[in-house]
Amino acid sequence: MHGTTSRSVFNNHLLSDKRIGLSTIAALPLTRHFSSIRSLVNNSEALASDHINSGKPTTLSVINKVLLNQNLVVTDSKLKELLKVEGVEIELPISTPKGKELLAELTGKSKYKGFSGVYMYIHKNTGDKYVGSSNLLRRRMDYYFNGDYPLAGKFLPLLYKEGLEAFKLRIFKLDSNKFSSQDALILEQFYLLDKEFNLNTLRVVNAGSSKGDPVYVYDLTCSILYYHAKSRIELKRVLNIHTETSKKYVDSKLPYLNKFLLLSYPIPTALTSDISLEELLGIMQDERKDTYKLGTRTSIPVELEIKEGNTFVSEASKGHTLKFDSLTSCMEYLRGLGLIIKRDTLTKYIKIEKVFHNFLCKYSDKTLPKNFDEIGLIIDEYKKLKVDTDSLIINRKNKPILVKGGAKLHMDK
Fold it and tell me: GIY-YIG domain: which residues (predicted)?
């Protein structure tokens, strides 16, 4: 069993950062994916539940049976090495320099680069436990510390109600020289099979959750594929495209650096480019230098069309289109009208051409390529072939999930 090194850090406030999204279940073949996923998940969960209720010790054989449908396997030697990793206990919340330094030591300084491992939240009064894992521990911790998460399952509502100060945090940092990111899932699974972790709703890890959202880098005609990143994190590491930037450009039909289109799905007819990664980076870097010189890198002009029936503006303004030199200035205008909208939300509305409160926001024509209409037709055609992963979400109890500050969502944890 693990040894635990206790370190107390006395703090008073929350450490805030952006939330991370919840994972979805990876897609299986389109013809029968829903029933297949349901049977696989239910079977693994049933095996885990039966083992927990039996009271028997967790063995290598039990873990591998439970992980069979996740395409994960662990050897006896690997499991023994994982169980030797010591956990470090931290008092919550964290606000002092000493506490932040310890957190950085265990999880990494950046949410984009850091360490993989397992974490546990232990309720101080009841001893109830929750276990999880991540290939980027810092990003996962920021998710909990920020407090902006769906109130689903057992743990998150309790954390939101009682606050970080009601819990102790224990982190098992994995040495990247000895372990892979998937090893964190194995260690998490070992603990999920222990009945003490009674704040976990699901008892089987999801191996697909660390894969992220793929990004495909094409030319402006979608006929050449330059690069396929398995996640936005990989895109940042390999091509220096920041995750916030990729959010803006992916599936927007808006050219990135005037030469590329970023899509979340493959175009089957595209040919793979034979240029090297170094050459691709060189092309992108040259374009970045040019846009810096022109002063156009951070400002993308947008237009805001005011529809009939709009209640935020005067009658004289209805039917007109306002032009802004950036998304930020457009958001400031809307805020002045009393309509507050997040940047990510407005970017999404632009991508899907959604009308909101009788406004329609779109990128200015001068930012679009000359063959924009043709590109749009190509992209829209292949969007029809894209698998809708939302249909793969399983809601076993068919109960709504409450999201803080919002409406009810019907989905699985």
Answer: 114-201
